[in-house]
Amino acid sequence: MSPTLVRHQLPDSVSPHGAGPRDPAGSRARARDWAEIQERMLVPLYEAAYDRLGIGAGTRLLGLGCGSGLALLLAAARGARVSGVDADESRLELARERLSPHGGPDAARLVHGGLEAASGDAPFHVITAFHPSDCGSAEGLTASLTAAAALAERGGAVVLGGWGPAERCATTRVLRVARRLADPLHRGGGWRPGGRDDLEELAERAGLRPDGSGRVACPFGYADLPSAVRGLLSTGAFDAALEVTERRQVEKELGEALHPHQRADGTVWMPNVFRYVVARPLRFA
Q: Rounded to two decimals, what is the model's pTM?
């Protein structure tokens, strides 16, 4: 499954102007923007990790931050039994819609919040945390991974995903707008690009031993500039900026940053490289 330029979105999926990330209506619209526009950009990352680990029939897989469920759907299509947890109920609602056809005894278990309800399906062969860690609390993610690693079976794998080298990611330069708007005094707040060994260091803090890695091309392609703005706003990278800056201003500056990546036909294209790290729980070392 290869990334494609996303279609113009239906009118009922348009993000309400001015809705902040904490507003319920804004949260639902942003979740749909993530599912319809942005999430598919990471399909090459999901597929590469699944190929490397041989995900298939009999695999029990837990997705941390499973979002609207595309990565789980791809694993289920390979025959895996999937579970997922996410803090965003709006995204989970979309995941349930996507995964509902996979009913029966192997139906997906999707949990809002913590890992407690997912522990009934442990031990897991594979635990994934695919989405870039630069949008959330490092301490919170480390704690979640530590707790999740306890649910892995002997010989199981934990997969971490994130941005590749900044110089290989055109979107990194666009996302710097989020950092500047969130922290105009340059004190180090807001979004930041990933470092070369960030995923390995995160794994080690969570009591995991890195056991291989890979790089995957994940170009971001959009049908037009408004779709690109909505897709990137749905990632969470701009949440801190939206807390301190008017949404209209954030959208304007994001659009300006995207303009160099707009092609003659109006589409927006940004080549990127993402990384994944396969790690193993140290308690089994």
A: 0.85
